[in-house]
């Protein structure tokens, strides 16, 4: 039996803990607030600010975990290198967690070192530098804080008049002490995918069937698996995912994001851990869902193959209002629908757009993926989060 220190305790962490519990592992779940979803199912918990390196050092020393498993980006990941030196196993690796928390590190690695095709990009550390960068990149373009996730501080610039606004917004949405932004040429993609990729300590790299998804305000609304795509594009995406995960090193499941446009496949970014769009696998679309795959890779258990068992979709249940006692209505209708399931995450409070649950739908392998996705959307829209 091994001990896992899970850094981040949201809904993805909760499913990971449930997978770990089923294999008899011990998990200590960590987050900045008590009663977070993953804490509700773990053996123990810690409430700390994970951007505070000393607080992080303290709980690592206290619990002496076999595995340190980050579930979010906002962690003082610089400390991970020291943990590795001290003999701890960081998942997938200290480098992976550290590089992916800053868009600059991961983008330079992917585009410059590995030569992957990405959107054109520049960095800017002031509104003036942003204007100059946009001169070079052209409009439309997308501005993102170097340290942010879920679309925070991100905006699309279409005209000169948007530039100052985008800069100000990026500074509100930036996490930590970094003011710099990345500005990317707008990729006029036909669709985007997440390619869940599994790297193993003693085995080959495996890929899940591609997941299609739709984003709004920087957060995913629906995802479906498999995404329909040309096999040459899938092959290109797999090659790129193998390159970038190999360069970052270690074992685990990764969510590698791509845009597919008329002129080919663009690498966008990646999560070195389960991906929110991968919640579609909770509909048992695969022999193992993404959390089970992550756990097996963490523990070094061999994964011989990943098979698609059925097609599926997921659609998010969002709150509209602030509440410290959110309740749900419309659940009976979802429960009553065939070939569907749902999760309510147990978050103790709600705020506008906070993800509170997810609906999954599925069908046989020869089913219609568009219809399955529409069904997920429709069912999710029946659930209301009440303040
Ligand atoms: N250069 C671009 N061109 C076109 N669309 C883009 C570009 N960059 C981002 N987007 C759109 O915005 C979404 C969010 O961007 P990105 O994944 O970089 O942000 P994020 O905040 O890290 O999101 P998350 O952490 O939720 O994955 C993308 O999935 C895509 O739909
Ligand atoms: Mg993303």
Automatic annotation (TrEMBL):
PROSITE patterns: ATP_GRASP (PS50975). NCBIfam families: PRK09288.1, purT. Residues 108-299 form the ATP-grasp domain. Pathway: Purine metabolism; IMP biosynthesis via de novo pathway; N(2)-formyl-N(1)-(5-phospho-D-ribosyl)glycinamide from N(1)-(5-phospho-D-ribosyl)glycinamide (formate route): step 1/1. It comes from the Bacteria. The gene is purT. Its EC number is 6.3.1.21. Mg(2+) binds at residues 257, 269. The lineage of its organism: Bacteria, Pseudomonadati, Bacteroidota, Flavobacteriia, Flavobacteriales. Involved in the de novo purine biosynthesis. Catalyzes the transfer of formate to 5-phospho-ribosyl-glycinamide (GAR), producing 5-phospho-ribosyl-N-formylglycinamide (FGAR). Formate is provided by PurU via hydrolysis of 10-formyl-tetrahydrofolate. N(1)-(5-phospho-beta-D-ribosyl)glycinamide binds at residues 11-12, 71, 276, 347, 354-355. Homodimer. ATP binds at residues 103, 144, 149-154, 184-187, 192. It catalyses: N(1)-(5-phospho-beta-D-ribosyl)glycinamide + formate + ATP = N(2)-formyl-N(1)-(5-phospho-beta-D-ribosyl)glycinamide + ADP + phosphate + H(+). It comes from Dokdonia ponticola. This is Formate-dependent phosphoribosylglycinamide formyltransferase. PANTHER family: FORMATE-DEPENDENT PHOSPHORIBOSYLGLYCINAMIDE FORMYLTRANSFERASE. It is an enzyme of class 6 (ligase). It holds the Pfam family RS_preATP-grasp-like. GO terms for molecular function: transferase activity.
